[in-house]
Amino acid sequence: MSFLYSTNRALRGNFYFLVGAFFFLSGVLNGQYFFDDKCQKAYQEILMFRFQKANELLNQERIQHPDNLLPVYLENYIDFFKLFTGEDKLVFENLKRNKADRLNSLELGDKESPYYRFCIAGLTLQWAFVRLKFGEYTTAAFEIRKAYNLLSENEKLFPDFLPNQIGLGILHIIIGLVPEQYQWLVNLAGFEGTIKEGVTELNRVLEYNGNDPVFLLFKPESCFYLAFVDVNLLNNKKESLSLIKRFDEDLSLKKFKQSPLIVYAKSSIYMKNGRNDDVIALLQDYHPLPNTYPFVFLYYLEGLARLNRLDTSAIIFLNRFVNEFTGINYIKAGYQKLAWAYLLKDDTLMYRKEIENAGTKGSSIVDEDKQAHSEYNVWIIPAIPLLKARLLFDGGYYKDALKVLLNTPLETYLRSKKDFTEYSYRLGRIYHALGNKPKAIQYYSVTIENGRNLPHYFAANAALNLGWIYEEEGNYVAADTNFRLCASMKYDEYENSLRQKAKAGLSRLKDVQN
After folding, report:
1. pLDDT-derived band of residue 396, with 50, 70 and 90 as boundaries?
2. Which residues contact 135 (CB under 8 A, 6 or more apart)?
3. Backbone dihedral region of 31: left (phi > 0), alpha (psi from -120 to 50 degrees) or beta?
4. Do 430 and 389 form a contact (C-beta atoms < 8 A)?
């Protein structure tokens, strides 16, 4: 059970963006699986989160072609999106009974078709990812294994079937993130794969230039996944921006411009690249079509983006998120960000109220919520200059963040070892972003020295960033040392995401050295 729990933690946090995006698994199916005009339109409506319209089209398809099994597969997307984005436990208990009936129907299909195993694997993975959200780890583990075996078998039987690379790519990336101490269990289960292998498979789909209209359908999916992998695991921020260009120019992607999924993906990429104003502009231009199922997390993103430029109108969007979201993740983080917004207005009374909510509401599963709960436990009001520097940095306003730190007398706000450690950490991050590597290395080193025994993430992230610097310079020994240091430290905040990134760094070094 400890393996399952650890594996689940490795999948959470920054990696939610990857498993949560498993939605383009569809295609033109042979025999009892075929993707006609109505199914294509239903598919597009699902990606636009217009579930009612999609259901109407699927019902029409059942009447017209009762032997077509694709509507069974497509309707599972609707349940998946409702559960994964809404996180409503009652809805989950009500809908999960659908899996068995749909699976039984799909298994009546043509076993000689490459889409037979492909569709069953896709449906199985969707339910596995949903179960991980609701704590059903054992069942999810068996479902992931089943999907892996089906896709591996499909790959052997139909090596030229390009869509198969999507599922395998995702699973290989997941396998590559399993902690080293549990790799023996992964091998025992028959799983094989690395992050590099998964990325190669997704790129194979993205770079397809043939004339098969079915294979072309999967290019948007691979682009979507690779954007998140580049930013969150490979630190390829600039490459993720090139993928944004594909979203804007590729005809197969442009039709989904107002899809909340695409808006979410592009917003996240811009945010990771310090393009905060682009995030706000994108979200302001998002106008969902009538009867679009709400993607409430977008309110959190817009609130966060506005907060990053010290705009207290963030309160409006953060309040909408915490009041309308039906799940448990990011609730603590939402209240923490509300507390910060009030602190920027010098309203310490409201800060206390909202940080109290961060401590008592939601759950501490994802890293952002853990950090919010940690602030509640400490019950110390953050130093405002450090908070402003943090927010401005996250928004990409690096020079403004540096001015805050350099132009504010230290004795007015540095009150503890934690504050001094955060001060050197913030300077390291800012100088790193501004391209001043010597100063970045200097302040990262100070952060590690002062903060390696503190329960905060500053020292671990400093080590991770040092690893990236040395990796870029070709100093693989120093990079390896710092990635391992990051992975070995004990701290309470952002542990999952930092360990994932450190493991991804070690995996890259292993590939280079081999």
Report:
1. very high
2. none
3. left
4. yes
pLDDT in tens, 338-392: 999 999 999 999 999 999 999 999 998 888 999 999 999 988 899 999 999 999 9
Rounded to the nearest 10 degrees, how much is the dihedral formed by the CA atoms of 27, 30, 31, 35?
30
Higher pLDDT, 388 or 113: 388
Residues whose CB falls within 8 Å of the CB of residue 417, separated by 6 or more in sequence, listed in order: 450, 451, 454
In 206-313, DSSP assigns E strands to: none
Exposed/middle/buried for residue 413 (C-beta within 10 Å: 0-12, 13-18, 19+): middle
Predicted confidence (pLDDT) per residue in 133-145, tens digit: 888 888 988 999 9
**Distance of alpha carbon 150 from alpha carbon 117, whole angstroms:** 6
| Residue 97 near residue 68, CB atoms below 8 Å | no
Q: Which DSSP string do the residues of 374-419 spell out, in sequence order?
A: HHHHHT-PPPHHHHHHHHHHHTT-HHHHHHHHHSS-GGGT--SHHH
Which is it for the CA torsion 388, 389, 391, 396, positive or negative? positive
pLDDT of residue 24: 38
Kindly report the pTM of this predicted structure: 0.85
Q: Are 468 and 452 in contact (CB under 8 A)?
A: no
Asked whether the beta carbons of 94 and 109 are under 8 A apart, the reply is no
Per the CB < 8 A criterion, the answer to whether 113 and 33 are in contact is: yes
What is the predicted pLDDT for the residue at 51? 97
- Short-list 129, 108, 130, 131, CA closest to 119: 108
The alpha-carbon radius of gyration of the chain (Å, integer) is 23
- Give me the helices (H) in 177-218, please: 183-188, 195-206, 213-216
